[in-house]
Specification:
Structural class: mainly alpha
Oligomer: single chain
Strand content: under 5%
Radius of gyration: 13 Å
Order of helices and strands: HH
Helix content: 55-70%
Number of helices: 2
Distance between the termini: 36 Å
């Protein structure tokens, strides 16, 4: 199996948005599962 080489360019805006959401909510103690539930419900 080959090594993972990063996020595909086409998915990069989504990846960066998810990373920003996790980073901004880290101080409030929000769990990734709760953020994902909000994203899926929208």
């Amino acid at each position: 199996m080959t090594r993972f080489k990063g996020v595909a360019t086409s998915y990069q805006p989504n990846y960066l948005g998810w990373f920003r959401a996790l980073d901004r909510n880290a101080k409030t103690g929000a769990k990734p599962a709760s953020l994902l539930a909000l994203a899926v419900a929208a």
